[in-house]
Automatic annotation (TrEMBL):
Location of the region described as Disordered in the Swiss-Prot/TrEMBL record: 1-22
GO biological process: phenylacetate catabolic process
Record keywords, A-Z: Oxidoreductase
Skewed-composition ranges (Basic and acidic residues): 8-22
Keyword Acyltransferase: no
Molecular-function GO terms, alphabetical: phenylacetyl-CoA 1,2-epoxidase activity
Enzyme class: oxidoreductase
Biological classification of the source: Bacteria, Bacillati, Actinomycetota, Actinomycetes, Mycobacteriales
EC number: 1.14.13.149
InterPro entries: Aromatic_CoA_ox/epox, Ferritin-like, Ferritin-like_SF, PaaA, PaaA_PaaC
Name the UniProt record assigns to this protein: 1,2-phenylacetyl-CoA epoxidase subunit A
Amino acid sequence: MSTSHAISADEHDDLTTHFESTIARDQRIEPRDWMPEGYRQTLIRQIAQHAHSEIIGMQPEGNWLTRAPSLRRKAILTAKVQDEAGHGLYLYSAAETLGADRAELTDKLIAGKQKYSSIFNYPTLSFADVGTIGWLVDGAAICNQVPLCRSSFGPYGRAMIRVCKEESFHQRQGYELLTTMMRGTDAQRAMVQESVNRFWWPALMMFGPPDDQSPNTEQSMAWGIKRHTNDELRQKFVDMSVPQAQVLGVTFPDPDLVWNPDRGHYDFGEPDWSEFMDVVKGNGAMNFERIAVRREAHENGQWVRDAALAFAAREEQETN
Ligand code: BYC
């Protein structure tokens, strides 16, 4: 049920009822369906942030492309970074189905008016970070994104299916890299542990603020955009990661991390939420550089956009 004309209050009520019953039946909302403006804006916000994260997320690992220790590792890393670019473009397309303009979204990112995941504002200081990002960052992303495959908005849910398949491959890639390093020298093992120490807490922050400080969760869950709260997913990630760390032979830097038989989950310490807020506000170690690099790439690509538009205009002229 779509509308292209101004609607009366009665029509609005009917459309709202239809929308709500579609959500209640757990059926999908598609781009041409009528939807409340708040639903559309929430999706644009989340999908744009997600797309920006994928694009900005190419930088921390891209930092190691020229210094990968072997041709094999370089080829794997190149493919992985390229996959992230694909996810970003896929997600910008999903945002476009909601009426968002891709160029405007990029402008907002570059102007610091739209967010991207806090995790990418931490530096990658050693090659072990490539493995840790694959294992923990892609691992956290999978925990968060698998439920998004059932998101109520069709194009977002469908995009997530492909993205999750690739992310799960990325996670195994990271874990395999770390396993190889752990079978190496003492210095390599120390490098892995040091990397895990730096990334553990920021990975937990990827899930967003605690539920009692998350302004968007309740409404997003009512709309079937999010399927779990931030804390539920954070717990799932901790429970999943601890046995993997044991097999790998590393520890997490949290003295409060302990199995709780009553809850059937691991208890864990509180992330430093003031650090999270600081990073989200733009004051993380790498915020400035990440945006500066993105801006430069965008400016350097201007001639490609100009050429593509000129080509399209000439084609149109020739057909008329
Ligand atoms: N970083 O009410 P809340 C990847 C913001 S990339 C920054 O809980 P919501 C990969 C939040 O936006 C994976 N900001 O919000 C790529 C909100 O601010 P606004 C990226 C954060 O939306 C390359 C405010 O805090 N994944 O996998 O209900 C290489 C309050 O939060 C963060 C996605 O984007 C954060 N961590 O829930 C490797 C997944 N957390 O907008 C890997 C899709 C929260 O009100 N997104 N904020 O000003 C989501 O699932 C949800 O948007 C979130 C937050 C769970 C992240």
